[in-house]
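User: Last request for today: this protein with glutamic acid, please.
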Amino acid sequence: MSHQPVRVRLAPSPSGYLHVGTARTAIANFLFARHFGGQFLIRIEDTDASRSDKALIEPILSALKWLGLQWDSDIIYQSLRLELYGEKARQVLDSGHAYRCFCSPDQLEKDRRIAKEKKLPLHYNRRCLNLTEVDIEEKLSNGEPFAIRIKIPEGETTFTDMVSGQLRRANTEIEDFVIARSDGSATYNMAVVVDDHDMGITHVIRGNDHITNTFKQIHIYRALGYELPQFGHIPLILRPDKRKVSKRLGDKDVEQYKNEGILPEAMFNFLCLLGWSPKTDREIYTADELIEIFTPDNFNTSNAIFDEEKLVAFNREHILKKTDHELATLVAPLLIESGCTTKYWLETRWEYLRAVIRALKDRVRRLTDFVTLGNYFFSFDYHYDEQAVEKTFTPESGTLLSELTGRFELLSEFTHENTESTLDELAEDKGIKRAKLIHPTRLAVSGVPGGPGLYDILVLLTKPVVIERMRKAVTYIENKYH
Ligand code: GLU
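Assistant: Here's the final one, the structure of the complex with glutamic acid:
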C-alpha cells in the first residue's frame, strides 16, 4: 500500500437500480476506505443520456444509504463534466498519443464484415494511423468529421491487480479505441480516467468485468502523464443459474429486500462474505467488525453464486442480535402496513409489542415473519387454518373448550403456571391426553396450529382476550356441526 490517504469510489450508471452486484462492489470500496481511514466517494456515470435516467439516481443513493454506505464529500456527476473530457481527449491527440480517424461508420462496418469473413480480429485496422499531414489537412479543410483514436504502442500491458496479482495482455489485443467521437464528445473510458485522476482515486476497485477497460484505461493514463492508481477487480456475483446478476434477468433492486424483511446488516454481511473471506469459520459480523478485520488480501478470486436462502439464514442471525426494542421499532411499521393493527393501538402498547417480539424471535427468518406468524396478537380478525380446523375442531373439542373456558374464567391470576395447571387438571378429570385440550385451545386463540408455547401466548393475550376467543371458537364449532 502506498502512503497516500486512500480514496476509492463507486461509479454507478443510472441505467438501472442498485442490484446485488453493484452493492457488493460498493461494500468492498466502503470497507477498504473505512479500514484505512480513507474516503469513499460516489460518481454518477450519466454521460450516456439515452441509457441514463435521472429518476434512477435517487433510488440508487437510497439503497446505498439503506445498506449504511454513507459516502464522503459531494457526489460527482459526469454529465456536468462533458466539456472537460472532450478537452482531455484533444490533449491526448495533441501529445501524439492519438490520431484522427476519418473512417465513416459505414466504412468501419464494412471492415468488420470483411475481417469476420476472413476470421481476422475485429479490431480497427488502423487505416487512418498513417495518414500524412497533407491528407489530414485536406480532410479537415473538406470538413470531414473525425473521431480520436488512441494509438496503442507495441508490446504488452501489465498491471498488478489487488485481487488476481499480475495481469498481462498483448497490445495486439487492445485495439486503437476511440476516445472522442466525431461530435467531440469523449467516450466512457476517457471520462473514467479523467475523473479517477481528478478525484484523486488511489484504488479502483470494481467488478472483474471491467478488466478489459482497465487495459485500455492504462493507455489513457500514460498518454496524459497521470500516475496509475492501484486496480482491484473483484469477482462477480452470479445467479444460481450461473448467469451474471442483472436487471434484465429480473434480479432485484437491493432495496426490494427491505420490503421482504431483510435487515441491511444481514445484506451487508452476506454480500461482503460473497467476495471476501475473513479466513475463519465465523460468518456473522457487524459492519464495524468487518471494517476492523478487513484486509484487501482476502478477496476471493472466483465468482460467487448469490443464494437467497443463505442470505435469509444470515438475516435470522442478525435478527437475533437485535434487542427487542430495536426489533419493535422495525416491526411496528410492518404491522401497521399489513393492516392488522394501527399506529394508535401500538403507541400505548409498546411493552406488549416487545413481549410478542420476544416470544416470536426464535422462529422468524425475515422481519415480515413477525407479521405473518404473529398477526393474531394484534388482530381479532384472524382466520382459522382450514386444515387445522378439520383435524382439531371436532364436536368433542367444542365441549372441552367450553369447559376449559369456564375454568379459566375462575382464575384470578392468569399466569403461565395457573393456566397450565388448570389445563392439566381438566385433562386428568376427563381422563384424556393434554394434547386434546392444547391443540384446540391454540387454534382457538391464534388461528394456527404452531407458534410459541401455548401458555406464553395465553398470558400475553391476557385473560379477557383468551376467554373471548375461546368462546368464539366454541360457537364456531357448534355452528360447524349443526
Ligand atoms: N459505471 C460502471 C458500472 O456501472 C463502473 C465503472 C467503474 O467502476 O470504473 O459498471
